[in-house]
Amino acid sequence: MANVISDETMEYVGILAKLELSKEEQKAARKDMERMLDYIDKLNELDTAGVEPMSHIFPVYNVFREDVVTNGDDRDNMLKNAPAEKDGTYKVEAKVGGSSRTSITCEKVEVKDGKATARIVFSSAGYPKLWVM
């Protein structure tokens, strides 16, 4: 065995891994780690010149489709399904905790470069206005 792990290193690894090992468990773990390091040394002896590095043994490719906006800004059609509408935005009533009535409105919806941004306003007796962007 060329690699020897000190008691301090074992204690430090135990702290990092949040492990409480008995003396016997520390001995067994030390032997395992020394064997691993010896194996890594053996692998380092191999001639890997001309071998291309890889991140996975199988070819990996993205299986997801591109996220492309196909329907664009169809606000008028979407607002047909809204329970109520105000200034081109959804207006809904919601009950938040207990029995207090809270109003939630979507003041502004923008679609730019395929990303939708909405400005939502919550209001109730306790909180006159709270914006969520």
Can you offer a commentary on this structure?
- The chain is α+β, with helices and mostly antiparallel strands and 133 residues long.
- The chain has three helices and five strands; from the N terminus they run αααβββββ.
- It has helices at residues 7-16, 23-44, 75-79; strands spanning 85-86, 89-95, 101-112, 115-124, 130-132.
- Strands 1-2-3-4-5 form a five-stranded antiparallel β-sheet, with no helix packed on it.
- The radius of gyration is 31 Å and the shape is elongated.
- The mean pLDDT is 79.
| Alpha-carbon distance between the two ends | 61 Å
Strand content: 25-35%
Tell me the total number of β-strands: 5
List the total number of helices.
3
Q: How large is the radius of gyration?
A: 31 Å
How would you write the strand order of the largest sheet? 1-2-3-4-5
Global structural class: alpha+beta
Percent helix among the residues?
A: 25-40%
Query: pLDDT under 50 segments (min length 5)?
Result: none
What composes the largest sheet? 5 strands, antiparallel
Care to give the gist of this entry?
By secondary structure, the chain is an alpha+beta fold. The chain has 3 helices and 5 strands.
Please describe the structure with a list of short key phrases separated by commas or semicolons.
about 130 residues; alpha+beta; five-stranded antiparallel β-sheet
